Amino acid sequence: MAHHRPPAIAATAPDEIPAWKRCLGILEEVSGFSLRHIPAERIEQEPANIGHAFCREMGQMQCVRQGCQSFHVEMRLRALAQGTHSVIVSCPSGFCLFLLTIHGGAGGLIEGGRILILQPEKAMEHLDKRLLRLGIAAIPESFRTQYSETRHLDLERLAGVIELVRNIIASVPAPPSVHNKPEAICKALQFIGEHLWEAITIEQAAKSACLSQGYFSKLFKQSTGLTFGEYLAKTRVARARTLLRTTGRRISEIAYESGFESIPHFNRMFKRFTGVTPRQMRTGE
Q: Residue 158, Cα to own-chain centre: how many angstroms?
């Protein structure tokens, strides 16, 4: 079965490919995994329906394509929020996926997997039920063949592959944006990303950076150009903006899931950082 090679590898001359990307490309070929690097600025735009013949074929159906894209974007955001931790999920089609962040998300993330944890027959049963809910009574036999040929792996072996990928990306050089910030502030930014949905205080952030609150506040403003409160609100608005564009959830639910404790505060901050209200962004007015 042919496997999709990450765009960055396919479009770059071999001598120009960073060593860690070459290693991922080799691992992808020998393991049968889909492994690709997604830059931080491409989290929302990078398409989901690639990397597996079944996904590409099913992605031709709009209802499937939109659902998969929304799912992948949300999982990528969750991985970024968790910083250095890996995220293992099961996609709507039943494939097992994992995501690993690079430098706490500053360098983007690695999205990999598209394997079956369940036996193919059992996984197909779940898929048929899901497609039936979408109004798809049957899929071509060729789709079923592509699905059933997907590699099956147990969780223990998957954990080993994830650890191997983690070791590979450990050699990725930090992007300039990380180098330009003091290490203490980088730790604080990672702490914020990991606890974005919680009631984070500046005292907690300063403690994560091992700094006094007064010095932390000054250094944070110098490093980011924003106060701690402004940065926190802006980051939460970015999260809410993505959810508004990729899900059908109620605006109040999105506000709370993004870390805001009140709807009025959410509306004020959203208008401040985007120029429109949440409802206007959703409706396109």
A: 19
Please give the pLDDT value at position 268. 92
Residue 10 pLDDT exceeds 70? no
C-beta of residue 104 within 8 angstroms of C-beta of residue 83: yes
What are the two backbone dihedrals, phi and then psi, of residue 216, each rounded to the nearest 5 degrees? -60, -45
- Give strand pairing partners of 110: 37, 100
- State how far the Cα of 94 lies from the Cα of 54, in Å rounded to an integer: 12
- For the chain, list the domains and their CATH numbers: 7-169 (no CATH), 177-283 (1.10.10.60)
What is the number of H-type helices and E-type strands within the chain? 15, 4
Strands (E), 12-123: 34-38, 87-90, 96-101, 109-115
Q: Assess contact for 282 and 255: CB atoms under 8 A.
A: no
pLDDT of residue 8 exceeding 60, the answer is no
